[in-house]
Sequence to fold (639 residues):
Amino acid sequence: MTAVLRAEGLGKRYGKRWALADCTLDVPSGHVVGLVGPNGAGKTTLLSLASGQAVPSAGRVTVLGGGPGRLARVGFVAQDTPTYAGLTVAEHLRLGARLNPRWDDAFARERVARVGLDPARRAGRLSGGQRAQLALTLGLAKRPELLFLDEPVAALDPLARRGFVQGLMEAAAEQGISVVLSSHLVSDVERACDYLVVLVASRVRLAGETDALLAAHRRLTGPPGAPPPGWHVVAAVHAERQSSYIARADDPAPDPAWTVAEVGLEDLVLAYMSEDR
Amino acid sequence: MIWLTWRQFRASAATAAALLAALAAVLALTGPGMADDYAAGVAACKRRPGGCGNFYQDFYHAHMAAFFGVTVVVLLLPALLGLFWGAPLITRELETGTHRLVWNQSVTRTRWLTVKLVLVGLGATAAAGIGSLAVTWWAGPVDGSAARNIPSFPRMGPLLFDARGLVPVAYAAFAFLLGVAAGTVVRRTLPAMAVTLAVFVVVQLALPLLVRPHYAAPVRASRTISEANLDDFFVGRNGEPVQLTVQAQAPGDPDAWVLESRLVDAAGKPTGGTINVSTTSGPCAPEQNAPPGGSRSAQPPEGRSPIAACLAEINRLGYRQRLVYQPSSRYWAFQWAETGIFAVLAAGLAGFCFWTVRRRLS
Fold:
């Protein structure tokens, strides 16, 4: 399978501060990828570099097998889903049609109607959720092969989040495009994503298909002290009577003293986020 | 891209067009009448023995308010275009985040900026051009009288040269691109407007003072002192020396820009107006011409002036008016030279804008 996004030692410096450093990543195509990390981890920077909006200070990034900045083939829905406040919904679609050679006008009109946007309404008077839907429509109707979304739902209420993620999943499945979605909340991406990248302090801590990641990790609870052999500890909580670990099993040896339970995606991500290295 | 740029620009373009149309209408209604009055007045005064000095003064004073009004409009227009069209062109997108929407369509930033600069820049230069054309046409008669007034505003001088003809168009292009460039650096509208205004004012003051006098080597002339160039003449009581001042005007060329006008002695040294000539005896003794302690204006009385003898004596002693000036025959050469300078500056700023938008903003 070819990589839609590949980064090798990628770094970006603003002044003296590295917003992203030594980032290496390989994302296969055909996935809805959740890019998760705390604020300031470098998610926005990584997406800016991948979409060609910023120039790397170090390393290399390839998108769809070539350099970044392939505007027609890569869509980008920016943080806070900006739109022109003075332009109507219909004028935004016209903007999209004028500025994109592969624009799918029928899809755009149909989608605007489906999510209940009034074409005559100015974008400045839309709610946050409606504006996000408009921005997503613009991103999808240009018919990209790869769509980046940078924290698109951060400012939305839970209902609007659900509507947005739902719409995104449907469209991604319909059009068969690859999607990279960044968020600082696991719950946003949990529903939509089948591939997960955890970025902490500008480094990739975990990357892989969601199901495989969940299958490889377990929560271990047992007597205080070191975990059984064969487990790679990600996070540990020590109490007086027992120790609790979230750990990855490469070749676990069964040990009746330990309780082994499945771990949820949110706990897994939090474990990697808090992991000290 | 043209559609989007025009859609964003059309409201301010309509406002500017309406204001310019109103100005043009007022000028079109009042211009022909004023031009007729001027032509008739000049024709009449040329037949009178006293000459046209009084007519020019009266005509200038009658239209002084409108003269300064339209001049200020043309002087301010480029600055306003730079502040309100140039500075917000990019910063408004940066402040609302819409640059991240438009830069992610299938259009490169270079194309995006090119269309914006060309379309809005053409609008700005057209607005300045129309404004300057209308005012230059309307103000022809007042400018003619202003050049012959004291204090005079010659066509080549720093005020009128900047507010007539071709240069306002170049100023507008420069101010517009200055605003855009400031916006790409400062990234916020209000600070960008402040920077634009400050830099534009400095350039507009520095250029006429430091650069414009050197577009061509100025003409140097040494004039004898006569009643034609005499401004004020004073003979003191008790043998004090003669004090006189001369008019800072090029001979036969009221529209020339006088860079220097000095009274010098036979050795060529500036005198500051003090003439070492005997005032107790000889042609400059007060008894022979003016009442003691009296001051005489340059207006000669009817017939042969008693000042003439004294002036002849002063000239005989080698006193001269030294003039350095740019004659009005160079008006269009200077206009083109200055337009060229500002066009080059504007092109440099445009290049800088492309560089910042492509490399520095994200």
About this structure: Chain A touches chain B through 32 residues (CB under 8 Å). Residues 158-175 of chain A form the longest helix (18 residues). Chain A has two domains: 3-201, 212-274. Chain A has eight helices and 13 strands.
